[in-house]
């Protein structure tokens, strides 16, 4: 069928997340054909879809900006070479479509003539049936140019999107993402929350080697790694050095778990040191361009200061921008590393050694299910990177964040959470102040009220981060609302010293 759209492109056209579209399909509100949806069915399910402007583009842009505010703006125009190739391909498709349409027109004319001849030759009841059929056919032909006007508008918008961005499907996982501007396939995949295999990102190591199964790609960067003649014949390219010209399918490796990512040691540079409160340091580090830290959301890393003081902290950043690392350090921690940040005045340009990743990753086990996040004060740092990655993946139907603190001052990135809520229609942010002990009646009641705002909780994936008492209080409350142990993942507050200088 000519008007079939992939789920990712269909979701983008009507301005919703892919996860929400998948939920509609699971509720039998939308039919699929081999994993795609038709334009007509999409418009019936979303009659309010605005096709006269590019508001969906702007909305996706806001989502990406909210998820990764440190990165460059999205939706850059492709290069003249890529744009010319896409225009050429689309013009051939348009010519073929016009030829096919003309053929159908000739067929309809021939069919009408044939029916007229049959009417003349028939008699009685048979002639009446043929006249009825001819009348129906004439009426259908007469109204067709008016009825599919919205279908045509949606297809025109889909064509415009194809000019700006190519879609990549990864096998065998089935993951999909868009390549915009002149970014490489690798960078686009990482920005979309995928754990693609890579190493140097500069074309030297060959770790990001992938096979192009269908579609056209274009080299945007020279690379030192040499593919064998056999590999080139089979369609292998380095994802860090090629962009997608058309929609493509690639065969590529993705990390399925912690065991698929090797431990790395990187000398980083302090890019920025923020002190939003007297008892908090937010540290931004930058890795060399040729040695990014590959990790999964929810993992940690060991930091080592020039003094030799070392300690492990959660990576409070999205793996989709693995050159820019973020850590939250709190005063009052028993960690020698934390004390080192407050006892010494670390400045921009200084060096910090990073070793990792470490620990278990947080997992998206729900395949598009809504996500509930519950953090207590500094526990937010253990969830922040996972939330950003989930937003980048654009695969969950809904998000709901409850950030608990003893005072409003404890929610040290409150503005960021409100920005997520403002940018995403499916993101709810519920700040919660609980001055009383969490384990007491008042604290438990406050949590019960906050959880009461989440409907149908048995379908949600839940992620909890904070002290042991939070886990002890919130676990039975979640289980009482239908959250099974398999759908609950917990991160306990811990800052570990490691080795010399601790």
Short synopsis of the structure:
This protein is of the alpha+beta class and 502 residues long.
Helix/strand/pairing class, anyone? alpha+beta
CATH class of the largest domain: Alpha Beta
Q: What's the end-to-end separation, in Å?
A: 65 Å
- What is the radius of gyration computed over CA atoms, rounded to a whole number of angstroms? 27 Å
- Total helical segments: 14
Mean pLDDT: 84
Proportion of residues in helical segments: 25-40%
Structural overview:
This protein has helices spanning 7-14, 18-26, 39-45, 55-67, 80-121, 124-143, 149-164, 185-191, 229-234, 336-343, 380-393, 414-423, 441-451, 468-480, and strands at 4-6, 36-38, 165-171, 176-180, 209-214, 217-219, 236-238, 242-244, 248-251, 264-277, 280-286, 300-304, 310-314, 324-330, 351-358, 371-376, 399-405, 427-433, 461-466, 488-492, 496-497. The model is unreliable at 52-57, 68-74 and 497-502 (pLDDT under 50). It is 37% helix and 23% strand. The protein has a seven-stranded antiparallel sheet with strand order 14-11-10-15-12-13-21, with helices on one face. A hairpin with a 2-residue loop joins strand 10 (264-277) and strand 11 (280-286). The chain contains 14 helices and 21 strands. It has five domains: 4-49, no CATH class; 80-155; 161-251, Beta-grasp domain (Ubiquitin-like (UB roll), Roll), CATH 3.10.20; 258-358, Elongation Factor Tu (Ef-tu), domain 3; 371-497, 3-Layer(aba) Sandwich (Rossmann fold). Helix 1 (7-14) crosses helix 2, helix 4 (55-67) packs antiparallel against helix 11 and helix 5 (80-121) runs antiparallel to helix 7. By secondary structure, it is of the alpha+beta class.
